[in-house]
């Protein structure tokens, strides 16, 4: 009578012959379990091996046909008496019956000592040692055979420390060698895969100084082809005449003949990791070769991808129409086709966006669960506040005020983003919100990133909303104060005393507001300008100075819709997309370096009319970068050689705050006609008399930043101009700048900037809350909307995400957001 080992081996071999269709036994492999387990017990088969085979069989039907060969390999190894874990390690028996269950919950493998892993029908050996404690995908890379401390250090420099890191170490590109071509149909500069037979080979010298050239001639019956290597002789010893090989590489011409230099070659009977397929190309570091990394990845992915725990519920996968995680991880590394590669990318990108959405929606849910004091404002009060302004609000400003009023009247703290183009009137909206707070005998803090911007806000809000002689104004002048690092200590002490007693209703400042001695009496509104310039901890520190205060964050950088739905998805958004009446669009022109004199002449003509100009440089000083112009060096040249009849000023980030203030005050009073500066004037500088903005090295800035700089002019009643001078006249490099000349629409420019340069310029420190994105594109609005819809649907069904079945998903969200501190607003 055959033993249970022989019986099961027979069915497993039959299953392999049937291409793993789970029909070697009628009804599925799991139907054998009741009888087999009884026989195994009578046969005295190891309990550890019996349990592990049981778990493998229970999981088998839920695996895809491409995943099943690895499971069969595990079981065959177990039948050989090699447990996946040792006899004295604990074993979790998932189910002793015949149900199939969820494989990600049932099958919990631990790396085996030796696994005979079938790779496209050709067994390979993946060896894993047990010198270190195994913890599944959390195990360090040193558990892999051949990965010692030195190689682990190399891999660590690429961000890989665990087996899971390896699975998520995605290729940087793919070379498609999957389409075979006969040699007589090759064309120059194409990447190809060829099957051919080695004809001959030899080594000779060529060039000055002479170099060894190894040449091997192969043929596929249609034509010969030369393969060449420089200063390498090993191919002669490796590839002998008559050997059939698969060759992949780029076709070039050398001495009038088709050649492939330094090709990837594999013998025909080998598994084709480097040829005859879509080949992944991974990032490398010193000491690692592409072939070595590819082999390591193949072995790791083949064994571990099928065991990656699926964290997305089936309902979400079906609704979103995405692949399972194990399949996506395998196909992203070694795709069977371009279609399966796209499907894998789609799943993994969806994961990242979906996890962002869950994080921001959870933050939004938490924020809205907090309680705060209602701050009501009647329509009459609002009309009264608006009436004191010396201008009429735009339609979008009125809408923003209404939205903020409703937020303040809620019993939950406001969490709103006010975004508007340069000059759209955000400061006025912040002032109206602070006025509502002041009417309710509470306090507002306004945090700005620079002393220049803080001072600008202080002057504007003091002018518009404070008056000692007229009671219709919401503030007395001494109720609005400015606190920056350079504020004299006696004045700081006075501000702290009046702030604590409630005498100051609106405090404007920089990081000085965050200091511990600054204590508010009743802080109810926190306004953060250019909020992307502040970190999570800084924003939280200011909010903690009140009891669940309302939060209004502002940005002059228009945020693309896709980012507003993801990175800023926890915030309610108010948009200022109209310009105040009388604002004249800035005319923008590209001027190339050889035409720089024309720009100087134009600036002189504007100054003679009484106007002023900015000249912006990307660097403060040259240092080792003498090929680029810098503010300090050019300031001296411009003052001495070009604009000798005018007064120039120099402004940059290394100046002390009082020095910056002195320069800006002289510029405001037109004592300085031309301000030579860096991007320190990017935000907040309001000089209505300035009509020209000249930007050197314009190609080195993003469109959003250029738009911010351009917004420093055109704030008066005269026509204004922005002149962009790139470093070179390279047409392709400067094509991006032409968009600046075509539109003044900051939102359109923001979309273009996101497409061309990625999200970095918009995020600032905000993305620090979660794992950097590897696969998702934050400009993919269709995927983002799909992921957000799925996340919102999940929250509608289960706002607290307390369903036990969501535990794997919750853990994944926590892991994804673990780099941050939790407060992302």
Descriptive account of the structure:
This protein is an alpha/beta fold and 825 residues long. It contains 29 helices and 23 strands. The chain folds into 5 domains: 1-109, no CATH class; 111-171 and 283-307, no CATH class; 179-276, Nucleic acid-binding proteins (OB fold (Dihydrolipoamide Acetyltransferase, E2P), Beta Barrel), CATH 2.40.50; 379-409 and 424-555, P-loop containing nucleotide triphosphate hydrolases (Rossmann fold, 3-Layer(aba) Sandwich), CATH 3.40.50; 587-743, 3-Layer(aba) Sandwich (Rossmann fold). The protein has a 7-stranded parallel β-sheet, with helices on both faces. The protein is flat. The model is unreliable at 85-135 and 820-825 (pLDDT under 50).
Structure classification: alpha/beta
Q: State the CATH architecture of the largest domain.
A: 3-Layer(aba) Sandwich
Termini separation comes to 70 Å
Total strand count, please?
23
Radius of gyration: 34 Å
CATH topology of the largest domain: Rossmann fold
CATH class of the largest domain: Alpha Beta
Overall geometry: flat
The neighbouring-strand order within the major sheet is: 13-14-12-15-16-11-17
Low-pLDDT windows of residues: 85-135, 820-825
Strand fraction equals: 15-25%
User: What number of domains?
Assistant: 5
What would you give as the CATH superfamily of the largest domain? P-loop containing nucleotide triphosphate hydrolases
The overall pLDDT, averaged over residues, is 82
Helical fraction equals: 25-40%
Number of helices: 29
Q: Report the sheet with the most strands, covering strand number, pairing sense and barrel closure.
A: 7 strands, parallel
């Amino acid at each position: 009578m055959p033993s249970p080992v022989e019986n099961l081996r027979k069915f497993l071999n039959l299953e392999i012959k049937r291409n793993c269709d789970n029909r070697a036994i009628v009804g599925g492999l799991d139907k054998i379990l009741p009888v087999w387990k009884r026989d195994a017990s009578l046969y005295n088969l190891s309990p550890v091996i019996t349990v592990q085979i049981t778990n493998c069989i229970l999981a088998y039907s839920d695996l895809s046909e491409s995943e099943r060969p690895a499971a069969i390999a595990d079981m065959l190894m177990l039948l050989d008496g090699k447990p996946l874990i040792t006899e004295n390690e604990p074993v979790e028996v998932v189910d002793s019956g015949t149900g199939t269950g969820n494989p990600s919950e049932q099958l919990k493998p631990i790396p085996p000592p030796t696994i005979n892993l079938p790779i496209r029908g050709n067994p390979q050996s993946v060896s894993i040692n047990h010198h270190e404690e195994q913890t599944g995908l959390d195990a360090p890379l040193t558990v892999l055979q051949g990965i010692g401390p030195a190689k682990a250090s190399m891999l660590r420099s690429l961000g890989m420390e665990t087996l899971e890191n390896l699975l998520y170490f995605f290729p940087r590109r793919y070379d498609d060698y999957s389409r075979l071509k006969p040699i007589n149909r090759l064309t120059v500069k194409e990447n190809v895969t060829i099957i051919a037979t080695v004809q001959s080979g030899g080594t000779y010298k060529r060039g000055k100084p002479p170099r060894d050239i190894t040449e091997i001639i192969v043929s596929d019956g249609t034509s010969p082809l030369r393969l060449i290597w420089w200063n390498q002789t090993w191919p002669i010893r490796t590839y002998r005449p008559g050997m059939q090989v698969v060759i992949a590489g780029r076709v070039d011409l050398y001495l009038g003949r088709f050649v492939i230099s330094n090709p990837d070659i594999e013998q025909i009977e080998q598994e084709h990791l480097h040829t005859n397929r879509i080949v992944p190309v991974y990032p490398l570091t010193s000491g690692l070769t592409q072939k070595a990394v590819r082999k390591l990845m193949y072995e790791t992915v083949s064994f571990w991808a099928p065991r990656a725990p699926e964290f997305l519920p089936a309902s979400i996968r079906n609704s979103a129409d995405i692949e399972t995680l194990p399949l996506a991880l395998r196909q992203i590394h070694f795709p069977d086709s371009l279609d399966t590669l796209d499907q894998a990318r789609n799943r993994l990108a969806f994961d990242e966006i979906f996890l962002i959405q869950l994080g921001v929606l959870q933050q939004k849910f938490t924020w809205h669960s907090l309680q705060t004091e209602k701050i009501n404002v009647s329509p009459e009060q609002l009309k009264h506040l608006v009436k004191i302004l010396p201008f009429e609000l735009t339609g979008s400003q009125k809408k923003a005020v209404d939205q903020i009023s409703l937020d303040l009247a809620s019993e939950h703290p406001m969490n709103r983003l006010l975004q508007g183009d340069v000059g759209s009137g955000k400061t006025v909206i912040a002032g109206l919100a602070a006025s509502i707070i002041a009417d309710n005998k509470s306090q507002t803090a306004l945090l700005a990133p620079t002393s220049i911007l803080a001072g600008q806000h202080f002057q504007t809000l003091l002018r518009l909303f404070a008056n000692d002689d007229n009671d219709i104004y919401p503030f007395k002048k001494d109720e609005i104060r400015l606190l920056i690092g350079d504020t004299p200590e006696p004045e700081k002490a006075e501000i702290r005393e009046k702030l604590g007693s409630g005498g100051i209703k609106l405090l404007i400042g920089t990081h000085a507001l965050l200091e511990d001695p600054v204590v508010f009496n009743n802080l109810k509104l926190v306004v953060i300008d250019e909020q992307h310039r502040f970190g999570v901890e800084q924003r939280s520190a200011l909010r903690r100075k009140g009891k669940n205060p309302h939060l209004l964050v502002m940005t002059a950088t228009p945020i693309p819709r896709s980012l507003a739905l993801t990175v800023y998805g926890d915030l309610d958004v108010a948009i200022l997309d109209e310009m105040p009446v009388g604002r004249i669009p800035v005319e923008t022109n590209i001027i190339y370096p050889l035409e720089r004199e024309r720009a100087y002449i134009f600036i002189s003509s504007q100054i003679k009319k009484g106007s002023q100009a900015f000249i912006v440089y990307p660097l403060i000083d040259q240092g080792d970068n003498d090929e680029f112009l810098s503010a300090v060096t050019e300031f001296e040249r411009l003052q001495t050689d070009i604009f000798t009849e005018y007064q120039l000023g120099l402004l940059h980030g290394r100046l002390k705050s009082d020095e910056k203030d002195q320069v800006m005050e002289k510029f405001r009073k037109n004592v300085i006609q031309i301000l030579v500066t860096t991007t320190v004037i990017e935000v907040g500088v309001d000089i209505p008399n300035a009509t020209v903005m000249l930007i050197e090295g314009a190609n080195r800035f993003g469109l959003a930043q250029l738009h911010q700089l351009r917004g420093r002019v055109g704030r008066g009643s005269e026509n204004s101009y922005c002149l962009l001078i790139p470093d070179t006249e390279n047409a392709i490099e400067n094509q991006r700048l032409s968009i600046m000349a075509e539109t003044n629409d900051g939102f359109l420019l923001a979309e273009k900037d996101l497409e061309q340069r990625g999200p970095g310029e918009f995020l600032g420190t905000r993305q620090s809350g979660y794992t950097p994105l590897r696969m998702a594109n934050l400009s993919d609005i269709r995927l983002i909307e799909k992921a957000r819809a799925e996340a919102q649907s999940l929250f509608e069904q289960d706002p607290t995400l307390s369903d036990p079945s969501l535990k794997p998903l919750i853990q994944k969200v926590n892991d994804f957001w673990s780099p941050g501190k939790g407060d992302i607003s």
